[in-house]
Amino acid sequence: MFRTINRCVWVNRVENSMENNNIKHILQLSKEEKRKFLDSFDMLMSDCDGVVWNFTGPIAGVDKALQLLRADGKKLAFISNNGMRTMEEYQKKFQSLGIVAQEDDIVHPALTTVHYLKSVNMQDAVYCIATEVFKDYLRNEGLQVMDGPKERFPDTREENQVRVYSEYFDHKDPKVGAVVIDIDVNLSLAHLMKAKCYLERNPNCLFIAGATDHIIPLGSSMDVIGPGYFIEILERATGRTALVLGKPGKALAQVVQKRFHITAPKRVLFVGDMLPQDMGFGSRCGFQKLLMLSGGTSKDALMAHNEPDQLPDYYADSFADFIELYNESIRSEE
Ligand SMILES: [Mg+2]
Question: How far is the CA of 333 from the centre of ligand 1 (A)?
Fold first, then answer.
């Protein structure tokens, strides 16, 4: 449930608050449209935070809705941008909510990064701006992970500032073959400078991004700045473009297409709560898209959003709306 905010969206929200009112709520479809909608997909891929659960607790009805979808023959998969929890923690969380999700059903950003680095036979060190959970996934696969600097930049009045900066940012590190940036609340200018040095000095150094979210809304009283802004700083400072292995990245779209053997994208429904990340990813993959209002996007923000590739085909209040959809659908068949 990671959110992007920008001033343009806010201005448009005020001036044109009903721009997207042609996007239909799934419960406002006619009886025939509801049946057609349910018959239009064989696979449902869903984001997790803000859709299956919230940071503040469970979302009512999700377990029942997912059971109904499975009973109707829909294959389920979950694609999260959140690499702050382990795969085991994901599975425990699903289990605690009464939802069956195997490891193969879950796409985890750190594991996607590990698979990618292994696929290119990365032998050099990987400079990683991310949580320890994320870095441990790389270490556990034998990749050499570098982070830091941990020591503070020297508070000095020395005349030769070039020497001070060079010594701090450019000393005897092993060869770095990839810079990886994901969520890291401890990120600092020093980390970005390190990353910039590695990317500039080795044109073959890979530049990989996980989550691209600009804002991570934890609940009604706390939003956290996500990695999106910092990825943009690095891109602008180096002139390089990150390979995005989180949503809405093209590289992740290729991974997902291959992993789930998708041959008919329009038969996949992508469900999420974020417009740039989830709906943007759905568009990139050619999936149908459903926005849930249970997480990081309000109905007003949806109606005012003006990026066509980030708009859903449908919206719903939460997964619980599928319960009503199936109830109505069964009643209409009787
Ligand atoms: Mg989300």
Answer: 34
